[in-house]
What we know:
The complex is a heterodimer. By secondary structure, chain A is α/β, with parallel strands linked by helices.
Amino acid sequence: MTQTIDASASVPSGPPTSFLEVRDLRVTFPTDDGMVRSVDGLSFKVERGKTMGIVGESGSGKSVTSQAILGLHNSTGASVSGQIWLDGEELVGKSSEEIRPLRGNKMAMIFQDPLSSLHPFYTIGDQIVEAYRVHNKVSKSVAKKRAVEMLDRVGIPNAGKRVDDYPHQFSGGMRQRVMIAMALVCDPQLLIADEPTTALDVTVQAQILDLMRDLQKEFNSAIILITHDLGVVAEIADDVTVMYGGRAVEQGSVRDLFYSPQMPYTWGLLASMPRLDRDRKGRLDPIPGNPPSLINLPTGCVFSPRCVYRDRVGAACVTDRPDLESVSDTHRVRCHIPAEQSQRIWLDEVKPQL
Amino acid sequence: MTITTSTESGTGVPLRSDALLQVRDLRKHFPISQGIVFQRQIGAVKAVDGITFDVSNGETLGLVGESGCGKSTAGRTIAKLLEPTSGSVMFDGVDITKHSRSQMRPLRSELQMIFQDPFSSLNPRHTVGTIVGAPYRVQGKLSDKDIKARVQGLLERVGLNPEHYNRYPHEFSGGQRQRIGVARAIALQPKLIICDEPVSALDVSIQAQVVNLLEDLQAEFGIAYIFVAHDLSVVRHISDRVAVMYLGQIMELADRDTLYSQPRHPYTHSLLSAVPLPDPDSGSRRERILLTGDLPSPINPPAGCVFHTRCWKVEERCKVEVPLVREISVGHQIACHFPEERPVFGQGGPTIHGPAPTEQELDAEAHDRNLQGGHVTAEGNIAHETELGWQKRQD
């Protein structure tokens, strides 16, 4: 298989200089039907104070990646390989006991659905106090003061009173603020937000995104934002990784991705969404077909069965797996179409259609 | 029940009498009752509180708003899956407001629904053939052999393989399941389909496939849609006219281009300005209106204009006087005392903030949330109530 080639080619060893560096991460789940390759050779870096957006459809491996960073696969049947360096410390292969002091303290996560991630029987104050006292040896009253302070910081009005309320007494947007307060209570340096605004309305989404931006400035944390909404990514991310079938198919700065994307899948995503800032199109241009099965990945480029540009470079697309090649300092693309040609296709054929 | 709002047809809004569907001052209130043996009503969730609009043949009306604004309840009440509290629904010249289930059955072939979640709206124990053929069997007009031929034709029409007739829903992906739901809805060639968030559960690339399919079917069969959704860009793409709902009422209704290019209601403005655009530089170019707080409780909606607690243009008059729906230009209705004049995608400006909620309002909100935990009778299937079923009473 060609996977081993791109794995060995570009994996440096030794601790990195970036705050978080994921190198050649692979997560596979054994099932009765075969190996599910959820994440297959993913690498990226995030610096403090920066936001990495991970975009992809369901089943592209974006949530599995975040769970691997938090070490949540260690006790399941999944096998995780590759390297995850967080602040000079390698996380892959650590036991649950070794990861637990980091989780919630150095890295924290915000989940998509705040109602099912908060315990219904405990007040939100109790839940934040618990999270704080796991990592800090302080009395309950000190921890509670800290909880009120955090709730106030994330914009919960009347925090001193609301701290004793139960999750159901908050609205969806307020619950998501509670989740953010809980995630930030130990000043984590890495915050992973898995679809933090998907369950929220647009007006509340705008509030939460603003809040995340402010908090990032204040705490200088690194954020990984997982989402399927390209609008949210454009608004908040500094760098973007587009995932498809468990791999990164395009990586670059947010400007690279939105102003000169080079991978047909990214073009397809941009073209298939109706846009408010453009004149209305007669018809949308969907990506044909369905996402691939992660058990039987197509040979060649994973995206080739759905790609409308695969005949541009001969048979390579269906026989050889392309590597993630650099096209500029910040921009990397996994596609057989040469950079100049794809630049031309983008400018002449794709961009005018958006 | 006090009727403080008024959107009757007598408010100077001309309505077309030849429309396929005429909804007049429709209300749906879910009663909240207390007590075990002697139940008494202590309030009502005013999910839909007086909406009026028409839908013509072959037209798409978009219904947008935040969650909890009553858009789904409105759709279900029009389809008579819920009994209206008051108001009237005329479908194809027949007043169906008081129709019983058996009276509705012959009309069901003309009025269909597509649901949001393609996983729970298809019976997992039935084959695709049974699911899509069910409308024919219920109506009892065709033989089994004809049904099979029709169903296979339908499957092909919605882009599925007719050989999948004997497969079960779990064998299909989300997008394919939604196509099955569409096939079932168009089986009897209805005149109106109410689509309740038909694409929100799907991935972006699949969403576009289903939206295109719905548009093709409309062009082919002349079906009218009521398209209920929260995604403003999808609604703009598919709708001919759009109604913006807030707290059970229609705030603004206009044809698509007018609503998106010259919205006049402050709420429409804030909705449009909050949509994140896939363009990293757009932030500096457009004005953002940040609404503070959340949707007020529909149990105890604010007096005066229901939007005044979050409105960035609020004045004293808004707090006391309910704005009547009025027509400000042909086909453009708005319920606001102070319509906004500026365009949405104008030059960059400062972020505008809504008023901060006062202490009393917050207390009232907390109180309402406790109320919501009360036993909701009737078909109280608003997600909120069922989720809170286990709640202990606080007061």
